[in-house]
């Protein structure tokens, strides 16, 4: 959201824009089953919202290339970003690197990823039609996933470490009304069971749940190491820039969830995208 919004603002200001995308277009919202809190879009899937954003940005003239930026350097002419496919240069750069799924941190999690353990209900939910699944987490992502999966799986166990959910009240109320969602709190996953494929989990209270799938939705963590030479990082790895989205390096800006901030929502990502793009355009006007 932040990156493509930046692109929309910058191309409309007459600049040529290349968006470097590492995963899926639109960022994490692309995997959200349903978005109901984006102004003027009462209910839309994250995938459709992302498609619309992409179409809007590219129709205006933004270009898109896939690649994971492994290094960003400042040069006399501006910046050079290195991906696995080569080098890309630009006079100004907006980092909108988003965040990654947080892992549970239990034994065999990596081995069972894709074999019953998933981090994305929209991507993998269809594999669990009529089966028993668990969802771990108590935020908007976990509760949206539980609601989405309740329409596919036979039983959904919502496993959360506290009795209260941090998700919106509206979602928490919805979850309580769905018969095949079993709220399992307070509980944490202590062990993943099964050989070739997940067959269940053991909880910290000793209970074993027999499950075909486990969706881990316990928040997101940043991955900004590639930018550490040019922008300060907070202790937990977010890029340290204020509401003006400027970093300590002239011409380098930061937008969206990867930035240190209080509220990470689609609306704040879009807001950052526009602020960063306008700041970058102002910078380019000043140096030319
Ligand atoms: P989140 O709000 O940070 O929630 C993460 C949840 O996982 C929390 O309930 C947390 O428990 C739990 N958790 C964290 N670490 C854990 C661990 N090691 N073991 C077990 N549980 C753990 O993350 P999110 O749900 O991914 O949402 C991220 C941001 O995106 C939020 O700002 C959210 O509002 C936003 N979002 C918005 C939408 C939308 O607007 N449509 C949709 C999805 C997400 P505690 O509560 O005990 O800390």
Q: What does this 3D model show about the protein?
A:
This protein has helices at residues 2-12, 46-60, 109-112, 121-124, 140-150, 169-177, 266-287; strands at 18-21, 63-66, 71-74, 79-83, 86-90, 93-95, 100-101, 117-118, 132-136, 155-159, 181-184, 189-193, 200-203, 208-210, 213-216, 220-221, 252-254. The protein is 26% helix and 22% strand. The chain is of the alpha/beta class. It folds into two domains: 2-100 and 220-287, FAD/NAD(P)-binding domain (3-Layer(bba) Sandwich), CATH 3.50.50; 103-216, FAD/NAD(P)-binding domain. It is built from seven helices and 17 strands. The longest helix is centred in the C-terminal third of the chain and has 22 residues, at 266-287. The protein binds NADP nicotinamide-adenine-dinucleotide phosphate (NAP).
Outline type? elongated
Helix content: 25-40%
What's the structural domain tally? Answer: 2
**Radius of gyration of CA atoms, rounded to a whole number:** 21 Å
* CATH class category label of the largest domain: Alpha Beta
Q: Biggest sheet, in brief? A: 5 strands, parallel
Order of helices and strands: HEHEEEEEEHEHEHEHEEEEEEEH
**Secondary-structure class:** alpha/beta
CATH architecture of the largest domain: 3-Layer(bba) Sandwich
Looking at CATH, the homologous superfamily of the largest domain is: FAD/NAD(P)-binding domain
Bound molecules: NADP nicotinamide-adenine-dinucleotide phosphate
**Low-confidence parts, pLDDT < 50 over ≥5 residues?**
none
| Beta-strand content | 15-25%
Mean of residue pLDDT values: 96
Q: Tell me the span between the first and last alpha carbons.
A: 29 Å
């Amino acid at each position: 959201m932040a990156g493509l919004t930046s692109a929309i603002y910058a191309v409309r200001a007459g600049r040529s824009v290349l968006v470097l995308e590492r995963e899926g277009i639109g960022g994490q919202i692309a995997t959200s089953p349903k978005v109901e809190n984006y102004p003027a879009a009462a209910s839309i899937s994250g995938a459709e919202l992302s498609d619309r954003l992409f179409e809007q940005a590219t129709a205006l003239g933004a270009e898109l290339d896939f690649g994971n930026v492994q290094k960003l350097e400042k040069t006399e002419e501006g910046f050079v970003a290195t991906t696995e496919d080569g080098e890309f240069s630009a006079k100004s750069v907006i980092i909108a690197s988003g965040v990654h799924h947080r892992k549970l941190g239990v034994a065999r999690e990596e081995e069972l990823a894709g074999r019953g353990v998933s981090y994305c209900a929209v991507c993998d939910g269809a594999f669990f039609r009529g089966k028993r699944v668990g969802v771990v987490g108590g935020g908007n992502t976990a509760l949206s996933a539980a609601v989405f999966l309740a329409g596919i799986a036979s039983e959904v166990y919502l496993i959360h470490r506290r009795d209260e959910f941090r998700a919106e009240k509206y979602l928490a109320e919805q979850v309580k009304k769905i018969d095949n969602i079993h709220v399992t709190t307070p509980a944490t996953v202590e062990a993943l069971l099964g050989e070739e494929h997940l067959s269940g989990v053991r909880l910290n209270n000793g209970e074993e749940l027999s499950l075909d799938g486990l969706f881990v939705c316990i928040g997101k963590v940043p991955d900004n190491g590639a930018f550490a030479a040019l922008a300060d990082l907070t202790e937990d790895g977010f890029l340290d820039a204020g509401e003006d989205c400027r970093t300590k390096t002239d011409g380098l800006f930061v937008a969206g969830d990867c930035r240190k901030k209080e509220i990470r929502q689609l609306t704040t990502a879009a807001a950052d995208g526009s602020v960063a793009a306008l700041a970058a355009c102002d910078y380019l006007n000043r140096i030319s």
